[in-house]
Amino acid sequence: MTASDLPRVRLPSTSFTPACDLPAIGQGTWFMGEGLAPRQDEVRALQQGLDLGLTVIDTAEMYADGGAEEVVGEALAGRRDDAFLVSKVYPWNAGRGSAIAACERSLARLKTDHLDLYLLHWPGSIPLEETLEDFERLRESGKIRRFGVSNFDVDDLASLLELPGGNDCAVNQVLYHLGSRGIEHSLLPRQRRHGIPTMAYCPLAQAGTLRRELLTNPAVLDLADSLDITPAQLLLAWAIHPVDDRRDVIAIPKAVQPEHVEQNAAALKVRLDDDSLARLDAAFPPPANKLPLDIV
Fold first, then answer.
1. Nearest Cα to 148, choosing from 113, 173, 176, 184?
2. Beta-bridge partner residues of 57
3. What is the per-residue pLDDT for 211?
4. Looking at the chain, which terminus has fewer C-beta neighbours within 10 angstroms, N or C?
5. Burial (0-12, 13-18, 19+ Cβ within 10 Å), 80
6. pLDDT confidence bin for 296, thresholds 50/70/90
7. Residue 24 backbone dihedrals phi, psi, to 5 degrees
8. What is the residue-wise DSSP string for the chain?
């Protein structure tokens, strides 16, 4: 399988940015920069992921109070163009003028002059109109290429889409994994109607109120064994599997150990047939009704 055959997700064109195709698995950085692993190992992991085609790197000013952005900046030294770089702004920093200042601080930590995608980390008390105004100013100045949101449920998304420029939202980043499928009832269908892809954080069930110890679940273990893949690879392959022959979910697992980075990249080559998907549905049924958005 060549690189061009690997699953990709298209970010639609907007009024100011052409469409682009991204790998369906990227790299998360939550908990990086906190001393939980040697900094050089975190930098090396991100660089290894880039080498293996995991070019989407997601971070946030919240992660380690900017420390994760600094790790990413070190990893991208001399190879910024290899990455599709995403960061997020605190809701209380997303007001008129303050979002621009927050973005500039992130850019300084990341040692770059632009973000490919800038997200509002979760809905807050500042009017969305103010946030969109600053996002537009950042785009006009070349400091961001696209904007999006994170942790937006159906009503939040509806409010965004009613605003001028709201339809240019590139993604909604939410918690999504096999044990937390609540978004499939209402949110995912709404996003699909509007052509808004999903970025799935915690795709390996590291968190979430609906977590079911997936990596040690017998159904997951049995199916992974039959496919000769790891349980983590099965969860990633499930998260990005196409719906109606279309892929619109990008999973962003975090990894530091070299073998985990390699396994994440190899999951791009895993294809789940209808029988495998049916077995997982039987063990982890999709929601029958609207559930509260699962968040961390």
1. 173
2. 27, 85
3. 58
4. N
5. middle
6. confident
7. -75, -10
8. --GGGS-EEEEPP-SSS--EEEESB-EE-TTTTSSSS-HHHHHHHHHHHHHTT--EEE--TTGGGGHHHHHHHHHTTT-GGG-EEEEEE-GGG-STTHHHHHHHHHHHHHT-S-BSEEEE-S--SS-HHHHHHHHHHHHHTTSBS-EEEES--HHHHHHHHTSTTGGG---EEEE-BTTB-GGGTTHHHHHHHTT--EEEESTT-SS-TT---GGG-HHHHHHHHHHTS-HHHHHHHHHT--BTTB--EEE-----SHHHHHHHHHGGG----HHHHHHHHHHSPPPSS--PPP--
**Tens digits of residue pLDDT in 124-169:** 999 999 999 999 999 999 999 999 999 999 999 999 999 999 999 9
Closest CA to 232 of 208, 259, 210, 209: 259
The token pair that represents 246 in the structure block = 């279309």
Residue with tokens 């980075």: 261
CA distance 56 to 10: 13
Nearest Cα to Cα of residue 135 among 92, 110, 159, 99: 99
Instruction: Flag whether pLDDT at 14 surpasses 90.
Output: no
What torsion, rounded to 10 degrees, do the Cα atoms 109, 57, 114, 79 define?
90
Closest by alpha carbon to 194, among 175, 177, 172, 174? 172
